[in-house]
Design brief:
The chain has a three-stranded parallel beta sheet. The chain has a domain at 47-67 and 78-127. The protein has helices spanning 2-26, 39-50, 94-110, 121-124, and strands at residues 57-62, 82-87, 115-118. The protein has 137 residues and is an alpha/beta fold.
Length: 137
C-alpha cells in the first residue's frame, strides 16, 4: 500500500507543479499570424517528442486548426495512444467548424490517437483540470 501512496503523492506533486502553466494556457490569447499556421508541424514535433514516452501522453493544441503550410508535413505521422485536446478552437460558422473537426478527427484517428476533444474559446476557460482525466466531449 505504501507504493500506491508514494505514486499518488508524486502525481499530486506533478499536478501542483504544472497547474500554473495549465492555468496560463487556459487564459492565453496568442497573436494570430495567418501566414505561418502549421498544424502538421506541431503534430510532427509532438509525434517525435511523445513517441515511446511512458505513461499518459497529453497534447494540448491552442489553434483554429487552419493549416496553411505544407513545408513540414510528416508522412506516416503517428500519435499512438496520445490524448489530444484542442482548445481555443475559433470557428466562424457551425458548418465550417464541423467540417474542420471532422477532417482533424479523421487525421487523429488514422494517426492512432487514443482520444480527442475540442473546446471553443468560450469553453476553454471552463475546462476541467487537464491532468484530472475529465475530458470534455
Amino acid at each position: 500500500m505504501a507504493g500506491v501512496k508514494q505514486v499518488a503523492d508524486q502525481l499530486t506533486a506533478i499536478h501542483t507543479q504544472l497547474q500554473p502553466q495549465l492555468d496560463g494556457l487556459a487564459h492565453w490569447s496568442p497573436a494570430r499570424n495567418a501566414r505561418n499556421t502549421s498544424v502538421y508541424g506541431c503534430l510532427g514535433l509532438a509525434s517525435q517528442r511523445l513517441s515511446g514516452a511512458p505513461g499518459k501522453r497529453l497534447l494540448v493544441i491552442a489553434s483554429d486548426l487552419q493549416n496553411n503550410s505544407s513545408l513540414d508535413v510528416t508522412p506516416g505521422l503517428r500519435l499512438d495512444g496520445v490524448d489530444i485536446s484542442v482548445v481555443n478552437l475559433l470557428c466562424t460558422s457551425v458548418p465550417a467548424c464541423e467540417a474542420t473537426k471532422g477532417a482533424w478527427v479523421g487525421f487523429f484517428r488514422t494517426a492512432g490517437a487514443a482520444s480527442w476533444s475540442f473546446a471553443d474559446p468560450a469553453k476553454t476557460d471552463t475546462l476541467p483540470p487537464l491532468l484530472g482525466g475529465n475530458w470534455p466531449q
